[in-house]
Amino acid sequence: MRIFEVGRDPIDSRHPGLDPGSRFSDIKTAGPRLGGRGDGLAIVILLLLAACGSGAGPSAPPPGERIACAIGEGAAFVPGCTAERQGDALVLHHPDGGFRRLTIVTDGRGVITADGAEPARVTVAGDGIEVAVGPDRYRLPARIAGR
User: Fold this and answer.
1) 95 and 45 share a domain?
2) What total number of domains does the chain contain?
3) In this structure, is residue 59 part of a structural domain?
4) CA–CA distance, 52 with 74 (Å, rounded to integer)
5) What is the mean pLDDT of residues 64-78?
6) What does the pLDDT average to over 27-46?
7) Are residues 87 and 20 in the same domain?
8) Which is it for strands 65-70 and 136-141: parallel, antiparallel or unpaired?
9) What tens digit of pLDDT does each residue of 82-128 get?
10) Quick check: 131 and 109 in contact, CB under 8 A?
11) Is there a domain that residue 56 lies in?
């Protein structure tokens, strides 16, 4: 973290890009600088932390029931997503780590988006519903009234 302090000395030759007469010429930085004795150790620690988790293979699938989804414009349905229900909340997890949050409603619409600007479009499909949000589509099991 750099700390800026205002001093009375004009800027020295180490900062040739600043005009000594500018309103920023009296700002001096204080604090740690790179090139000290502990910098090598700090860089090694940062590199080790950055490597954590990489190369460990695929992570466990998200919780929930496996459902068919088509992620992206023109994509085919594959059983690659999971649906996790928590009360009236439904989280649809994508294989790439993305997700959509929906809210289950009982007013005949089925589900609505819980957040975001794109509305959910719901249609009856086979023994369930197909939900489209933007270019993404999901097939969810559902009880349909009158069937």
Assistant:
1) no
2) 2
3) no
4) 36
5) 95
6) 57
7) no
8) antiparallel
9) 999 999 999 999 999 999 999 999 998 899 999 878 999 999 988 89
10) no
11) no
Give the integer Cα–Cα distance in Å for 84 and 51. 30
- Kindly report whether the global pTM for this prediction surpasses the value 0.85: no
Note whether residue 147 is domain-resident. Answer: no
Q: Provide the residue type at 27 as one letter.
A: I
Whether the per-residue pLDDT at 31 is higher than 90: the answer is no
The answer to whether the CB of 67 falls within 8 A of the CB of 92 is yes
Question: How far is 58 from 41, CA to CA, in rounded Å?
Answer: 30
38 pLDDT above the threshold of 50? yes
120 close to 102: Cβ distance less than 8 angstroms: yes
Whole-angstrom Cα distance, residue 115 to residue 92? 13
Q: What is the DSSP letter of 121?
A: E
Instruction: Write the DSSP string, 43-99.
Output: HHHHHHHHHTTTTS-PPPPPSSEEEEEE-STTPPPEEEEEEEEETTEEEEE-TTS-E
User: Do 105 and 74 share a structural domain?
Assistant: yes
Q: Are residues 43 and 74 in the same domain?
A: no
In a domain, 106, yes or no: yes
Instruction: Out of 6-10, 47-51, 54-58, 117-121, pick the least confident.
Output: 6-10
Q: What single-letter amino acid sits at 78?
A: V
Range of the domain at 18: 3-51
